[in-house]
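Duplicate of #3305? Posting structure anyway:
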């Protein structure tokens, strides 16, 4: 089903899927196979030359994964998508065809902690550089762009500090510089935020989180808007120049708006191998069918719990953009009109010790390093994910000693509030 005029609730169930041609199976089968039989030698040759689209080997393409790719691309309003083994794999897959030694990206200072490490440390091994800039300072973002900049990267709703990015304003800067804007839409999901409509070129996801929604499998996805002109200048030779591994084929000239997607499969997955397996795609397809229903409840619960916490004497601060007290409250209507997500931090009176007692005393909330599950989750970053950092670095990362990150699930809001209440009593008495 490719009719993209249907509503979101219809597309999250049907986009990309059709009854199995072999058996009529209504649910998308798990095609648990590595190889696919070629009709004959000419068919095989055409597939390997990219002259015909089909299945060769599951490192590149798999029918179950293909359904998920089409589903996510449709929900984001993109032309194509490539699924990968994790959200972090998706980030490397998004950057890989744009970058080269000596090239750089500009990224927001407010990002998922793992992304700060990936961009701040690990990508240096490829000769890539990342400049971290405060995305509320548009002049600083403009000033950071140089001749070697190949992308701008930010999160629509940043994990975890309740920050909402002005996607449109940053897209204008990327457009002027003729470079793509990449948005990590993990915390928002396409139900709450549509980055491509706000000017993004590429959207990346950790499907591990809300898209799967049940905390079972890791996965990632890169969605292409199909709107970027890769041949406007010589900055993106992966698309505009002949590709030796495919007899000098030029991806942009040959595949047009699908250039990024074809490159992601034919070069990215082929050579980097960060492939999503069909079982993982199956779990994510199960989850995505109820995405809008879950996100509505996530947001409704987050509003109730955040409002209750804000009025509680034992709490110093709540950073939820859905609250009027948030400096980003005004941006919600522009960037994520259906809600500010379900992730925020609280600062607890009583500091480090109180936070430790709080996470130990909670009964419904689990203390884990995940987020975006139907289950409510907490983590005390200063004693876990951010414990190697100095107190000053923790503070700058929004992970101070007295800060607890909360991912609100889809349970009864009253139960969540009662659980926080009893745990706060134990933490601060
Ligand atoms: C979890 C997460 C990632 C990394 O995804 P993995 O699937 O864990 O590799 C990237 N960005 C954001 C916003 C995340 O929440």
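Output from current build:
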């Amino acid at each position: 089903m490719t009719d993209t005029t249907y509503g979101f609730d219809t597309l999250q169930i049907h986009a990309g899927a059709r009854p199995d041609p072999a058996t009529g199976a209504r649910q998308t089968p798990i095609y648990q196979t590595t190889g696919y039989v070629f009709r004959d030698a000419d068919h095989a040759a055409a597939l390997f030359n990219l002259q015909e689209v089909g299945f060769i080997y599951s490192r590149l393409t798999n029918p179950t994964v293909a359904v998920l790719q089409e589903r996510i691309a449709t929900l984001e309003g993109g032309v194509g998508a490539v699924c990968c083994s994790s959200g972090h794999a998706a980030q490397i897959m998004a950057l890989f065809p744009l970058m080269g030694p000596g090239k750089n990206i500009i990224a927001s200072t407010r990002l998922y902690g793992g992304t700060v490490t990936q961009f701040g440390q690990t990508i240096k091994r490829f000769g890539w550089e990342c400049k971290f800039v405060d995305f509320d300072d548009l002049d600083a973002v403009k000033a950071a762009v140089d001749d070697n900049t190949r992308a701008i990267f930010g999160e629509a709703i940043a994990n975890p500090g309740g920050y909402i990015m002005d996607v449109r304003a940053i897209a204008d800067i990327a457009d002027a510089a003729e470079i793509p804007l990449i948005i990590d839409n993990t915390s928002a999901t396409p139900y709450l935020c549509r980055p491509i409509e706000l000017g993004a070129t590429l959207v990346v996801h950790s499907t591990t989180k809300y898209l799967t929604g049940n905390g079972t499998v890791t996965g990632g996805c890169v969605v292409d808007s199909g709107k970027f002109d890769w041949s406007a200048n010589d900055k993106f030779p992966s698309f505009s120049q002949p590709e030796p591994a495919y007899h000098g084929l030029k991806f942009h000239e040959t595949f047009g708006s699908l250039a990024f997607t074809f490159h992601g499969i034919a070069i990215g997955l082929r050579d980097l191998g960060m492939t999503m397996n069909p079982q993982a795609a199956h779990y994510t397809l199960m989850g995505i069918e109820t995405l809008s229903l879950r996100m509505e409840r996530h947001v409704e619960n987050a509003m109730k719990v955040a409002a209750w916490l804000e009025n509680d004497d034992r709490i110093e601060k709540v950073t939820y953009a859905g609250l009027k007290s948030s400096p980003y409250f005004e941006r919600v209507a522009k960037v994520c009109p259906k809600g500010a997500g379900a992730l925020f931090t609280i600062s607890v009176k009583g500091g480090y010790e109180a936070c430790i007692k709080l996470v130990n005393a909670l009964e419904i909330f689990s203390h884990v390093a995940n987020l975006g599950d139907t289950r409510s989750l907490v983590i005390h970053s200063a004693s876990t994910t951010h414990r190697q950092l100095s107190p000053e670095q923790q503070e700058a990362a929004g992970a101070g000693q007295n800060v607890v990150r909360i991912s609100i699930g889809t349970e009864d809001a009253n139960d969540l509030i009662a659980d926080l209440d009893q745990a706060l009593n134990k933490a601060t008495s």
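Confirmed duplicate; merging threads. The pocket of pyridoxal-5'-phosphate is lined by residues 86-88, 112, 114-115, 155, 159, 184, 186-187, 206, 208-209, 218, 220, 371 (CB under 6 Å). The chain has two domains: 10-287, 291-428.
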